[in-house]
Please model this.
Amino acid sequence: FGWFCRDVKRIERVEESAGALAAITDPARSDVRFWETHTSVSAAGEGTLVSYRTSITPAFWIPSFVGRRWMLSTLANATSNLFMNVEEQARDKK
Model:
């Protein structure tokens, strides 16, 4: 996929509330038509329950035969790694 890979510029407005973040992309300054992400965290026993929901409409072509699946998988893995690293750092600070 070397011919297809690219960095995607995303400028977003982030709103914070108790235990939650909402990020909405500014399409005029980004490489996407729409990107909205909602994250919330809450205590769950000895750990943390993270709820993460995102919706994206790119402003560029993605081949449907495998590109969309690959993009979503990459996004899911990166997000999972982010939250696992946050949890690990939180444990190290105890």
